[in-house]
Amino acid sequence: MPQTNKVQTKEAQTENPSRDRILERIRAGLRTVVPEPAAMRSGQVIFEPIVNPLERFQQECVGNLMECALTADSAASARQLSKVLQSLPEGETFVQDDPALRRLIEQAAPARAIRWSSPSSSEGAPGEASQATVTLAEALIAQTGSILVTAACGGRGASVIAPCHIVYATVVQLVPDLATALSRVSQERKLDSNSFACVISGSSRTADIEKILVQGAHGPRRLVVILQTAT
User: Fold this and answer.
1) What is the pLDDT of residues 79-88, one digit of tens each?
2) Cα dihedral 95, 97, 101, 106 sign
3) Which of 5, 199, 204, 211 makes the best surface tag, with the fewest CB within 10 Å?
4) Is pTM, for the whole model, over 0.70?
5) How many helices (DSSP H) and strands (DSSP E) are in the chain?
6) Residue 121: pLDDT band by 50, 70, 90 thresholds?
């Protein structure tokens, strides 16, 4: 008799009504026939047509929480860069080592430490002291207000580590869509000589926690495009 009581007690302990209900719901769901999704019609329009690429890029930048400053020439671009850097906390600025940015930094003459990108492991990416990175873009995508960059911008960390990412570009780099941007960089063989390519659509942000928008979650909380209208 004592042995029988032990068996009954063990069986009672293994009973789990909640588990049984969950398993039954899963079984019922598996028995439900799910209809096949309707096939997408070829040529179906996903994005609105682009009438004015520059205007469209500016509109998309607003939706992407990205700052876009139009400048008339290199002198105006340098002044805009200086203005943005002055608004940041103290700290160094990591800059892609390119002749165009060398000239821009010389004109802007920022009153803060400048560190140029380098192939060496110790200087090749921004660090904790970097408050901003200044890079070029391979292309600007009007359709989505995005920026296409490659490893040429100063390594993988150049566009994600510092709190502020500043991109210097000209209107000749503005293309209507991603397919055109990728086609251009492929023709220029830039994807052959760089370890990665990245499309950036606005500042880093998330609303995973209680649907509260937080910027700077996985990268720069501020993305600024200095777009020069004259080459």
Assistant:
1) 999 999 999 9
2) positive
3) 211
4) yes
5) 6, 12
6) very low
